[in-house]
Amino acid sequence: MHSANSIIYRIKHIFVAIFALLVYNTTQAQENSPYSRYGLGDIISGQNITNRAMGGFSAAYSDYGLVGSPFNINIANPASLGSLSNTKNFSNTIFDLGGEINSRTLKSNLNGQKYTSSNAAISYLQVAFPISTPKMEKKGVTWGASFGLRPLTRISYKIEKNSRISNIDSLNTLYEGTGGLNQVNLSTGIRKIGNGSHKNEFSFGVSTGFNFGNKSISTRTSLLNDTVIYAKGNEELKSTFGGVFLNAGIQYEIHIKNAGNLRLGAYANFQQKLNANQSIVNETFGYDGSGAVLTIDSVSTIKDVKGKIVIPATYVAGFTYQTKNKQWLFGADFETSDWTAYRYYNESDKTTNSWVVKTGAEFYPAKFNAASNKYWNYIKYRAGFYYGTAPVKTDNLRNRSAFTFGAGMPLTTPRQIQNRGEYVALNTSIEIGTIGNAGTTGLKENSFRINFGVSMNARWFQKRSYD
């Protein structure tokens, strides 16, 4: 037992180091995403790293209890939490941490100019555990819960534009924005297994919590003249916002005799109204010797303006199919969001309805109920693809697509998993994607994203008789 405890102890310190490194990298990020100025910024993927490797499908995905499973938490559909069980080795607490490193290249379709930026950030931090009693499970009912923290959107751009006011002077305009939306969530799901020969399973789950964030945008203008000095102008808007959210999901698993398991799923992120508070400042400014902004004179200041921000609803439906030998898993999702309903203080933005189709597969070499000492047999190989439209519309509707692939690699030995049911798995995915259309007047964005997540299953809340 001592060796197992020692491994868990070291892994906990690894988590702390990874978390600190990602936070540091986030503060040092050089990301510049011009389209994040619209709405509440770029939407961050709401899937686990495992799902991202398979194109992002998650509506019908439930990893708990599958053979060789690293027990990843489905953070998109709370109905999957109903599969958490207190029986055998499934009574452990699951800790799931995800992060990403991405590089994006913006290319102008007009002059071919390119700009590359990079960023590193935490994707999610989630904990899940079973809460059903033995009496419930004897009746075929299992119940699980989870809580965590994750970012939903990110605002990060700095755009400089040079133009000329007819018969006056040249004008330099600097657009800059930071902020985003984050979420603290508490989710629960319950599953009922059919009686007798009818062993199909129905699961239902809800997720609630608090969405919160901030948005800071500024527009700095400077008239350029060799002989006359003009005061530089800055218009800055800062807002904070927050509100309670509610999501819900369902899953239904059908056991097909001599064929495998078909699972259907759907979930909805319902429309939400955030309470907002903003301030607007118009001022003249200058720069000091280090380039920092210095306020010269405040032209006008408006503080504590109350309002509402409407976040539109998102609906997702899909399926997964696992073969009888448990080696292959296929899945697909269809997702749609009504971004025409987005409002910021009763004002719309350049947002539009969006949709995306996600599909992928997973291959697990280890054979069901067959022991193997080969490490490579316990690695899960994943690949996928998604295609759809982006929620921001400028000159026309922008397409988005990506190829994804990755793997789930156990960091503990099969013997440790079999003896105690405790393990650690490293999940990775690589996403190569693009947003935008060739031949338009806008920007085309190519991205390369590396996602990685650590999933740990450990008996944190169980009292041991022997150590």
Residues in β-strands, percent: over 45%
Strand order of the largest sheet: 2-3-4-5-6-7-8-11-12-14-15-16-17-18
* Mean residue pLDDT: 82
What top-tier CATH class fits best? Answer: Mainly Beta
CA radius of gyration: 25 Å
Series of secondary-structure elements, N-terminal to C-terminal: HEHEEHEEEEEEEEEEEEEHEE
Helix tally? 4
Characterization of this structure:
Helix content is about 10%, strand content about 55%. It is mainly beta. The protein has one domain: Porin. Strands 2-3-4-5-6-7-8-11-12-14-15-16-17-18 form a 14-stranded antiparallel beta barrel.
Keywords:
single chain; 467 residues; Porin; 14-stranded antiparallel barrel; 4 helices; elongated
Question: Care to give the gist of this entry?
Answer:
This protein has 467 residues and is mostly beta strands. It contains four helices and 18 strands. It has one domain: Porin.
Annotate the secondary structure layout.
Blueprint: H1 2-27, E1 42-43, H2 49-53, E2 93-108, E3 114-130, H3 134-138, E4 141-164, E5 170-193, E6 201-224, E7 232-256, E8 260-269, E9 272-287, E10 293-311, E11 314-323, E12 328-337, E13 343-344, E14 354-363, E15 380-393, E16 397-410, H4 414-420, E17 423-435, E18 443-458
Antiparallel strand pairs: 1-4, 2-3, 2-18, 3-4, 4-5, 5-6, 6-7, 7-8, 7-9, 8-11, 9-10, 10-13, 11-12, 12-14, 14-15, 15-16, 16-17, 17-18
